[in-house]
Amino acid sequence: MARVSINLTPITQLYWIRVGLGITAGIISAAFALFLSQTDLTTLINGFTIALIMYLASYYIFRAIYKNKIEKQSKILSTAIVMYFFSWFPFFVLFYTLFKVY
């Protein structure tokens, strides 16, 4: 059987980690937003705040990990920020709805 080796650049690794982290943040923020919610608007604001805190926390962790691997340090902050929130939002809505129903 042939063995396939995939070499991912640090930017690509960071991209896919952030997509997975966005999904995880969607689940976690949906759970917290359900317990903290009062109205529909505050539910969304609470969920977004938790997702933003998780993104900023991940920046400091990834900055320590990738500081010697990525030339421009600003790339660590900006890589996959759009995909993070595009993956966060549908999973936030999905899991908030599931948690609310059950």
Describe the overall structure.
The protein has one domain (23-97). The protein is built from 4 helices and no strands. Helix 1 runs antiparallel to helix 2 and helix 1 packs parallel to helix 4 (81-101). It is flat. The longest helix is centred in the first third of the chain and has 27 residues, at 10-36. It has helices spanning 10-36, 40-66, 74-78, 81-101. It is an all-alpha fold and 102 residues long. 23% of the residues are buried.
Tally of helical segments: 4
Q: What proportion of the residues form beta strands (DSSP E)?
A: under 5%
Which percent bin holds the helix content? Answer: over 70%
The sequence of SSEs as H and E is: HHHH
Number of folding domains?
Answer: 1
Average pLDDT taken over every residue: 89
> Mind telling me the C-alpha Rg?
16 Å
Q: Distance N terminus to C terminus?
A: 46 Å
Helix/strand-derived category reads mainly alpha
Detail the poorly predicted runs: none
Number of strands: 0
Biggest β-sheet strands, sense, barrel:
none
The gross shape turns out to be flat
Q: Any key phrases for this structure?
A:
102 residues; mainly alpha; 4 helices; 78% helix
Protein topology:
Blueprint: H1 10-36, H2 40-66, H3 74-78, H4 81-101
Helix pairs in contact: 1-2, 1-4
